[in-house]
């Protein structure tokens, strides 16, 4: 399906370039991302194309995406983060691709740096630091900064792993490093943080179970305790004040929940094996 012309985006020049540089596509996957998406797309108005792949939003996500000139596609299923990002990548037409999460924004300084890099790229991909906000505060310790993420790459020379959660972008060539950062509004409040950790721990436990991994209660507790110690003390999360303590606690809860859920999946599998066939 051909995309409609995108209001507010640069027109493509002959030879596949815009103002002498390669064309840039921004790709975003969404589901009920209405609270963040407008800021995300507004921050990349310098891109030549924005492609949004949605997986069942029932809020105003699709209307926001279209209002910002994005090409919008929908998928009927949810294969996991890695596979979904490869799907939206396949829809991009630019020479270069910038992959963003819906709760991320490109700063003006990073936008300018990206355009400068695209004018004379020396690598096939570039990573950038990401500054994340937790419950209203940007976190600079606890392992959250500088959180370098690989997001800008030449199309055809990078691909996401198929991991259901915690997917990675793998580049086929050298990777450069950008100076300026993304802004990441990851958890607006504690309710959102706990809900997200619950979803991620469930997905992670299912992935581990499918790989034949096993867990027990002491191991689950140990994972949670070690996560807190590493984040709050070893990675100096304590320097972020009470936010650092809460973040380390919530992250430890997620680690504990992942292995506790895996333990129960193991139990369920044992019961099924022990049940004689009828």
TrEMBL record:
Keywords: Transferase. Pfam families: Glycos_transf_2. This is Glycosyltransferase family 2 protein. InterPro entries: Glyco_trans_2-like, Nucleotide-diphossugar_trans. CDD domains: Beta4Glucosyltransferase (cd02511). Residues 25-142 form the Glycosyltransferase 2-like domain. GO terms for molecular function: transferase activity. Belongs to the glycosyltransferase 2 family. WaaE/KdtX subfamily. The lineage of its organism: Bacteria, Pseudomonadati, Pseudomonadota, Betaproteobacteria, Burkholderiales.
């Amino acid at each position: 399906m051909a995309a409609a012309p995108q209001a507010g985006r640069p027109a493509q020049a002959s030879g596949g370039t815009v103002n002498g540089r390669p064309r840039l596509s921004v790709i975003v996957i969404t589901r009920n991302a209405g609270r963040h998406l407008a800021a995300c797309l507004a921050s990349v108005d310098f891109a030549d194309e924005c492609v949004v792949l949605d997986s069942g939003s029932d809020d105003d996500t699709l209307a926001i995406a279209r209002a910002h000139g994005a090409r919008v596609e929908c998928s009927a299923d949810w294969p996991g983060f890695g596979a979904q990002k490869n799907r939206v990548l396949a829809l991009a037409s630019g020479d270069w691709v910038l992959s963003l999460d819906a709760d991320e924004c490109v700063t003006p300084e990073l936008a300018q740096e990206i355009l400068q890099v695209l004018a004379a790229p020396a690598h096939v991909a570039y990573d950038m630091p990401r500054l994340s906000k937790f419950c209203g505060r940007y976190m600079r310790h606890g392992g959250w900064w500088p959180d370098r993420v690989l997001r800008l790459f030449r199309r055809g020379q990078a691909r996401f792993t198929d991991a259901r959660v915690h997917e990675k972008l793998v580049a086929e060539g050298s990777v450069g490093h950008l100076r300026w950062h993304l802004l990441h509004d990851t958890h607006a409040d504690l309710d959102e943080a706990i809900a997200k950790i619950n979803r991620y721990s469930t997905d992670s436990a299912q992935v581990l179970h499918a790989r034949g991994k096993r867990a027990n209660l002491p191991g689950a507790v140990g994972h949670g305790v070690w996560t807190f110690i590493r984040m709050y003390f070893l990675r100096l999360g304590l320097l972020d004040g009470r936010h650092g303590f809460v973040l380390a606690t919530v992250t430890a809860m997620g680690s504990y929940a992942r292995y506790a859920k895996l333990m129960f999946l193991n139990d369920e599998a044992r019961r099924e094996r022990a049940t004689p066939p009828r």
